[in-house]
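User: Mind token order:
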Amino acid sequence: MTKDVHAAQHPIIDSEKVVTFPRGIPGFEKYTTYLVYHKEENDLTAFWLESCDQPEITFTIVDPGQYGLSYDLELTDEERDLLQAKGAEELGIFMMLSKREGKAPVLNANIAGPVIINPRTRIGLQKVIRRARLNTMIIQKE
């Protein structure tokens, strides 16, 4: 009897929790499928996008509304077709966070690159907003 080591290292992933980014994420274009999972901490919800092909590639995304921010985005026809969106109300819009290490860890939010996901089709994209290059710091209180 043999053991399938490959299967043990790569458990079956629930397809309902996978989002496809047909264009990839800027800088990571060759990785197009991501497992989405979340965790609630301090009354805030963070989601993680973990590459199905390279699990060490993981992005943290959050609802901008948790930080008092909102987007008024216009999608191009190409973006709307890619997301297979019937209307803007069915799309989820998220900010990608990055953590800067140091004496006091700081989270940076990429406001100019919202992640847009259609939960019905499980298709996403990261939209690059060219009119402004904004980032905001979210300071973690202890």
Q: What stands out?
A: The chain has one domain: 5-139. Confidence is low (pLDDT under 50) at residues 1-10.
